[in-house]
Here is the input.
Amino acid sequence: MASPHPFESAKDYEIRLTSKLIKDSYPASANVHFVQIDRLDPPKKDMIKYLAAEREGLKTPPIPRVFYAYYYTNDLEFNKALVNVTAGHIITKQQQPQGTVGPFLPDDMMEWEEHCNNHPIVIEEIKKLKLPSNYTVRNDPWIYATDDPNEKRPLVQFFMYVLAGNGHTESNHYSLPLKFSPVFEAFTKKFVRMDYLPGGFDATTVPTGPWQEVQCCEYHPDLNGEVVPRDVKPLLISQPEGPSFTVQGNLVKWQGWEFRVSSTSREGFAVYDGYFKGRQVFYRVSLSEMTVPYGDPRAPYHRKQAFDLGDCGFGVNGNRLALGCDCLGVIKYMDGHGIHANGEPFVIPNTICMHEQDDGLLYKHVNYRTGNATVARRRIFIVQTIATVANYEYIINLKFVSDGSIDIEARATGILSTMPIDENVKVPWGTIVAPNCMAAYHQHILSFRIDPAVDGHKNTVVFDDTKKLPKDKELNPYGIGFVSDRKFVEKPGYVEQSPFTNRSYKIINENVINPISKTPVGYKISMPARQMLLADDTSFNTRRAKFATQQVWVTKYHDNELFAAGEFTNQSQKDTGLAEWSVRDENVRNDDCVVWATLGFTHIPRVEDFPVMPVEIHNIMLTPFNFFDKNPALDIPQANNNFNKSILVESKEEGGCCKTKI
Ligand code: CU
Here is the structure.
């Protein structure tokens, strides 16, 4: 069988071979328990040769498919192995230092959920609630995070909720949080401790007593009490001649764009080898990490800090996307994959969708003398995935635009993580969103890894500040001048935000000069200044997520450095990613550099975010900046109605609001 393209997603048979080789290398008594298996990117230097040969239609050099596997042996030993799947042998396997905790497996989380609710100590606690008949208890297993450097066991903390007795599976338990929270050892399932949660202003807790019934705030249409649905007419996306994109294997071609899309267990997806109109733009772009720290200072909430990629895998928690729901129009789907603990793969069908969207106007000019309009519509090609990480949903969109720009978009939705709060209590770190239900302030801090290749792999990151030109009799006699002041990033590190100098970051190629502007070609990274991580510098939250303290980081490219907070984040003590890579004494100017763009949003919940949160949208734009010799979208056909076939609203009442015939 021909080996898949080096950038193609993991195949079932490759995962199966990886797990088999590893299992066969241990005695059965070791009880090998896999938690993640996926493809590893090939060394970049080999891939550059491969991709060059591929573009020239030459024979491509062989590149072995290498897989990594994370797994436990004997319940508590965490291991990592690398397997050459092409040759069929293990390259390395290594037990990780005690205290290294791997990502949790979705299957395990489900099993622990059940184990917790059936544990005698938890049952005893539930009995004390004296719940009304038909009411039960549901739990959310939570990542334990870190507050003790001596804690080496993989642990899970369970947040407990009442499930209203309406008999409906979709009832919103998050509306009814309880005040006890058991902690278990993850793989041995041993009960560790019962934490009690405060209901007042301070950390004081009380023993569990009878539950005071409150109304559940429901989101599901069967339960939410909205009996008359809003009148919405169909809005259909029709592409009668088919879409303007093609997908061969994982190679996408659309409106001058060419790139490959690969599903990954940890990131959801990565896009590789991006070109626009035959010009190289990037080597790899993906979400790299996301941390969600909570601001409620009371124990045990101080440990609420999730790493949604490293702790559990964004891809393996990917949704099965549905036509006409998650994606409108003419859709191309791509599958993802996960594994069971025995190393057997399973498919996550349709977890990535790709499609075109109209996006309003791209450009327009009316010659006021003639009244003639020159106008083209903006079209985008979306690569989308959605992951459910317990209560929250994250929608990651990479939007390729017909003018050569890329819009990286994150949308947060789902249900707020809630805590119990007593009647008539207010706290300064949370919003009461339903009766006796508080949603603590928190942050979502995402790192997108942009491995650029702007006209080649030797790139430079610069930042430009726009400044007033000092008033000067000769140079600026009227005092109105302003100029751009450029600084070059020479060494790894971060660039501070500076919204009041309109600081803008660019990735340029100093070796390629734009013939028109006579300046280096480049791509601009537009991201509004945002609040970064709020935790104290000495806190575990900051030590574990150094990446979340700055908006833009630059490092020199090294293979296998993909994750901003490091490879293993679950119960980590420190950031082993950017915290380490950004302090090396290396050159990054006119070199193979990587940009890490941090998209942070501090989420002060509002009542309207409950019971299910309307999407909060945040973007990073990558825009060609003196890259082309003119607007690269002039070849887009002019917008006209023969093509777009829009029609007029039919006026039912003469003189009514719809009488807008043109
Ligand atoms: Cu939020």
User: Anything to note?
Assistant: The CA atoms of residues 164 and 619 lie 38 Å apart.
